[in-house]
Specification:
The complex is a heterodimer of chains A (270) and B (275). Chain A has 270 residues and is an all-alpha fold. Chain A has 2 domains: 42 residues; 194 residues, MetI-like fold (Orthogonal Bundle). Chain A has 11 helices and 2 strands; from the N terminus they run ββααααααααααα. In chain A, strands 1-2 form a two-stranded antiparallel sheet. Chain A is flat, with a radius of gyration of 26 Å. In chain B, the strands form 2 sheets. In chain B, strands 6-7-8-3-9-10 form a 6-stranded mixed beta sheet, sandwiched between helices. A 4-stranded antiparallel beta sheet of chain B has the order 2-1-4-5. In chain B, helix 5 packs across helix 6 and helix 6 runs parallel beside helix 7. The chains are: A mainly alpha (270), B alpha/beta (275). Chains A and B meet through helix 8 and helix 9 of A and helix 2, strand 6 and helix 4 of B.
Chain lengths: 270, 275
């Protein structure tokens, strides 16, 4: 009863009282869960380590500054590898994700069973992190940038596939109806009514994933899948913090560059 | 030219949208399909080009049964039937020229259409039609840069690019202002007469329909309840199609009806339409 009578006047309530109490109880339970978790974490934390955390951080940063620019030249090759891993991996991922998205979208799939297969591939690709894909692939195809590219590609399939099939499901149905009504064939309907509608989403998703992949590719070296992560890992193991700082600066510059490129692409396609 | 025999459509929800429709349209005849929302007008024309599959009955185009054809045969049938939509249904990110040329898709192969390499004669026809609908300078504009009336003109050109025998027109004026509505209706009907095209036009605006068409078919709850000339549409018949309403009073008085008896209201609406 969202409306009740009180002193002869109608009073409007947002929800039924029972529902309102249930919502209150939900918030209450959530709050209690949060406090309980906090207590649990606190028990398992050695707070003594935190007392000098500020000094530790200051000392670490002090050892990082100034960065050791002398290794910049030797980092250029791994950095180039990293960008290549990200770019080729993204391209490969998109190539596989593109048809999968059409199979997975409710309005373009030829058959429900194909849709289930496509969704299964997309979900399994998404459920494994690129770093874990890289670990698996290093043991299968050996260490190096090839393993890195495959890892990036495998992770990207799920991401691009999912976002793209959602974009396909959100298109306006009437242009599809109109092109179908002209007697166009199935591929022609896709090319003339679906593709133009998803093109901006496709471009946006692709460069966004490429952008993420640049960052992910910088860590793949940690498990031997090529790129600048290997140098970073070596520097950290040697406690050469000035060199680590140089790697950080280079990664930062690369990411800024990739942000700029993706912004340009998105702007160009809309 | 177009013959529907016992066409019925029951949706999966169990709703019977069309029941036992018999309708014959000779070549070159322009008919208006009128009726309240939900009467089955859209379902009916979509059963003709099989955007909706009829549950029962037979659809014949030039004597050929197209009710159950599939694949290439279905596309062959569809390309003889042009369709014009209420919301224009243009592909908004494509140019006007691409939208018009998409009417030729059933005549060219996939790769030719994908690379936009349409035959020269198609391009000529597209320019000719764009000129006919008054958009000859707009061919390079993107679909979303046009006004509603212009979009509908592109939709008309696209349908005519198919060189159809029949036009299916679904509420062509419902999203347009009154003046543009009249211009669009006149354009569609003129083009049909020029090219000897038959047309089925779903339309809400009864007065507009009466001005332009040869024949009116009234649909109510999935059944044909009227089939005759536009002049024969009396208030009594309109009541049989749409339900009780005072057809004489201007629309802004519509709240205070119930005053005059039905007999008082009997006067032909066609007075306005044919002065």
């Amino acid at each position: 009863m969202p409306i009740r009578e009180k002193d002869g006047q109608k009073e409007w309530l947002r929800r039924e009282p029972a529902k309102q109490y249930a919502i209150w109880a939900g918030w209450m339970l959530g709050g209690m869960l949060f406090v309980w978790c906090w207590a649990l974490i606190s028990e398992n934390t050695i707070w003594e380590f935190l007392y000098d955390a500020d000094e530790q951080a200051a000392s670490l940063i002090g050892r990082m500054i100034p960065p050791d620019w002398s290794i910049t030249g030797s980092l250029m090759k791994p950095l180039w590898d990293t960008i290549n891993i990200a770019t080729v991996g993204t391209a490969l991922g998109i190539l596989i994700a593109f048809p999968l998205a059409f199979l997975a979208a409710r309005n373009t799939t030829p058959h429900a069973s194909l849709r289930a297969v496509a969704l299964a591939i997309i979900v399994s690709s998404r459920s494994i992190n690129a770093l874990i894909w890289a670990m698996l692939l290093v043991t299968i195809v050996g260490p190096g940038i090839f393993a890195g590219m495959l890892a990036i590609a495998l992770r990207s399939i799920g991401f691009v596939g999912k976002l793209l099939y959602e974009a396909i499901e959100e298109i306006h149905p009437t242009p599809v109806e109109a092109i179908t009504a002209t007697g166009a064939s199935g591929p022609q309907v896709l090319a003339y009514s679906v593709w133009p509608q998803i093109l901006p989403a496709f471009a946006g998703i692709s460069v966004y994933r490429w952008d993420i992949n640049i960052r992910e590719a910088t860590t793949l070296g940690l498990v031997g899948a090529g790129g600048i992560g290997l140098q970073m890992n070596a520097a950290i193991n040697n406690l050469a913090w000035a060199q680590v700082a140089t790697v950080f600066v280079l990664i930062f510059a690369t990411v800024v560059l990739s942000e700029w490129v993706s912004a340009k692409v998105r702007h160009a396609v809309i | 030219m177009l013959t529907l025999t016992g066409v019925s459509k029951r949706y999966q929800t169990g709703e019977l949208a069309l029941s036992d429709i018999d309708l014959t349209i000779p070549a070159g005849q322009v008919i208006a399909l009128i009726g309240p929302s939900g009467a089955g007008k859209s379902t009916l024309i979509r059963c003709v080009n099989r955007l909706i599959e009829p549950t029962d009955g037979k659809v014949q185009l030039d004597g050929e049964d197209i009710t159950r054809v599939r694949g290439a045969k279905l596309r062959q049938a569809r390309r003889q039937i042009g369709m014009i939509f209420q919301n224009y249904a243009l592909v908004e990110r494509l140019s006007v020229m691409e939208n018009v040329l998409s009417g030729r898709l059933a005549y060219v192969g996939f790769w030719r259409s994908y690379f936009r390499r349409f035959p020269k004669s198609d391009i000529q026809q597209a320019f000719h039609l764009l000129q006919r609908v008054g958009l000859e300078t707009m061919f390079d504009k993107r679909g979303d840069a046009l006004s509603g009336g212009q979009k509908q003109r592109v939709g008309i050109a696209r349908a005519l690019m198919q060189n159809p025998k029949l036009l299916l027109v679904d509420e062509p004026t419902a999203s347009l202002d009154p003046k543009t509505s009249r211009q669009i209706m006149r354009l569609i009907c003129d083009l049909c007469r020029e090219q000897q095209l038959a047309a089925v036009i779903n339309i809400h605006d009864v007065v507009l329909a009466q001005q332009f068409v040869d024949r009116v078919v009234g649909l109510r709850a999935g059944r044909i309840v009227f089939d005759g000339s536009p002049q024969d549409l009396s208030p009594a018949i309109l009541t049989s199609i749409y339900g009780e309403e005072d057809w004489e009073v201007p629309a802004d008085n519509e709240d205070d009806d119930e005053r005059s008896s039905p007999e008082d209201r009997v006067r032909s609406l066609t007075v306005d339409a044919h002065p």
